[in-house]
């Protein structure tokens, strides 16, 4: 069994398809997606469709990201709606309309259900835990605040008291490379700009990366080892 973590997808279905084809998930594998499936990229609708299909196989653990939180809250508050639109919501809405116009009513109920009820705030295995953004080192995962889990930047976090390695996204790396400080790994490698979408086999350390054009490259997470952030 492999545990395969995938960073922030942001509506880039070509990169996501390329990664899935490259890693060739087996029935016993677990795929942990770290949130931010929506916004900024051209195909949020396609990404959510793929994730729902993958979840139906029983292989997917889908985390919720801050962009999913913004999208969900945009339904109930004009201020949240405006904030979401400025953060990539316009691109998300356009992906659901053939005309390219922003139409909230075109979003299927199953997509809202996926973000609100299928996605989870965190997940852990025997040796790793997975969050969208970060975690306070002295608190258990169920004690973390919303800010910690969804909004806090990856600023040289201290080791978690559990002894487990943290795997997260959220803090996008302009150079397209993961950050690995041993006890914490960030794999948001800025696919929505000129970067890559990253998949990490957390046990073997193998890394696959795909860009928005479908180009693939591989590496080892050890190639990105840092003693600490500068």
Strand order of the largest sheet: 3-2-1-9-10-11
- Report low-confidence residues grouped into runs of 5 or more: none
Structural class: alpha/beta
In total, how many beta strands? 11
Helix content estimate:
25-40%
Largest sheet: 6 strands, mixed
Mean pLDDT: 95
List the secondary-structure elements in sequence, H or E: EHEHEHHHEEHEEEEEE
Shape, per Cα inertia axes: globular
SS summary, helix count = 6
Distance between the termini: 35 Å
The proportion of residues in beta strands is 15-25%
Question: Radius of gyration, rounded?
Answer: 17 Å
Describe this protein's structure.
The protein has 230 residues and is of the alpha/beta class. The chain has helices spanning 13-23, 44-56, 66-73, 78-95, 109-118, 146-150, and strands at 3-6, 30-33, 60-62, 122-124, 128-131, 165-168, 179-180, 184-186, 197-201, 206-210, 216-220. A six-stranded mixed β-sheet has the order 3-2-1-9-10-11. Strand 2, helix 2 (44-56) and strand 3 form a beta-alpha-beta unit. Helix 3 (66-73) packs across helix 4 (78-95). The mean pLDDT is 95.
